[in-house]
Amino acid sequence: MATITKQELVKRIAEQTHYKRAVVKTVVQQLLEQITMELTQNNRLELRNFGVFEPWIREARTAQNPRTLKFINVPAKPVVRVKMGRMMRYRMNLAAKLTML
User: Which helix (H) or strand (E) is 64 found in, with range?
Assistant: First the structure.
């Protein structure tokens, strides 16, 4: 499994769309900032066929340190839930089936 950076993503989009990298980088950065802003304002973000991003508060819990075996309290914290959209689910399942062959 490879890791794709934002820089690599910008490069690929620029090559496919024939826009300058600087323009693509600005658009990608603005998209990410808008997503972050909406989630920090507790708004649910739905991108059709891609997925739904939803802010969520993970409840406080008790966990165990594996080294010391001591129990510690982990406070509640904000997280983002991601639910795959129809097209992403279809493509992920198709890719998984192809790798199993």
Answer: strand 61-64
Residues 6+ apart with CB under 8 A from 3: none
Report pTM. 0.79
Residues 14 and 21 sit within 8 Å (Cβ to Cβ): yes
pLDDT of 42 reads 95
Cβ burial, residue 54 (10 Å; 0-12/13-18/19+):
middle
How far apart (Å, rounded) are the C-alpha atoms in residues 78 and 59?
9
> Across residues 37-64, what is the average pLDDT?
95
Query: Phi first, then psi: what are they for 62, rounded to 5°?
Result: -105, 130
CA–CA gap between residue 11 and residue 22 (Å, rounded): 10
